Amino acid sequence: MTSQSQGIHQLLQAEKRAKDKLEEAKKRKEKRLKQAKEEAMAEINQYRMQRDKEFRLKQSKVMGSQSNLSEEVDERTLGKIQELNGSYNKYMEVMLKQLLNMVCDVKPGIHVNYRATH
């Protein structure tokens, strides 16, 4: 009987050792998974920062060129406005005189399409 209880005791100890080894393996696996997750997150953050930096550079180049175009358009617009104002001031007097002459100098006459009815 002692040999049976000794065999049972050995089996229980072997079972306990196997259980302990399984627990250790699970802990190591969880630790490796956690470490891999942290490394992946760090890599993702680094990649995100790199892409964000590239985006900002491209955005600044595009926005910079757009602001240059905007300034050029503003300059052209102001130049055109000044040109039109100068033209207006130059020809205003002449045009007013011509308009007043045409309105005030009425030459009465019979229209060519008028038919006299008797």
UniProtKB/TrEMBL annotation:
A biological process from GO: synaptic vesicle lumen acidification
One term under GO cellular component: vacuolar proton-transporting V-type ATPase, V1 domain
InterPro entries, per database record: V-ATPase_G
Keyword Metal-binding: no
Region Disordered, annotated ranges: 1-36
Pfam families: V-ATPase_G (PF03179)
Name used for this protein in its record: V-type proton ATPase subunit G
Organism: Acinonyx jubatus (Cheetah)
Lineage: Eukaryota, Metazoa, Chordata, Craniata, Vertebrata
